[in-house]
Request: fold
Amino acid sequence: MGHRLTKIYTRTGDKGTTGLADGNRIDKDDHRIESMGDVDELNCAIGLLLTEPVPDELRNDLVKIQHILFNLGGELAMPDYQLVKEDDIQLLENRLDYYNESLTPLKEFILPGGTKAASYAHLCRSVCRRAERQMVSLNKTLESPHQIAQNFLNRLSDFLFVICRYINHASGVSDVLWNNEFSKT
Reply:
């Protein structure tokens, strides 16, 4: 593969537009660019989570997810192109079920917390929800919406919630239960 980036700054975005992979230029605040940014931020947050100790099996799954998210960013950069597949959603569902099997049923709301890694996973989950909301907004504007990508993000946020609990469980740390008593005045 040749060099993809030989010059980092081009000045082509100085007027508030950016280029898509097909050569078209669009405003930097377009829903498509907002979606790309949220997916990129989610990938960065997962990278941050991976700086913490997590079980090797989960680490491998998260790296796979990072690659899928990179593909999703590519899909968004290429209008009318699909890189995220139903198989990617099925992978998430299978892994979600796998991690959830070891957890006790949840009877209360939980707060972000526990281990540092679980807290980072909660951050990933909240960024993922934002990326999903932005994808919904983008899809409303498109003739050919990125429905599989939207479904992937929805499932990914569920996966991230489960791994928050799984990371704490694997570390011997309890979920941080929400206590309504703190809400009463």
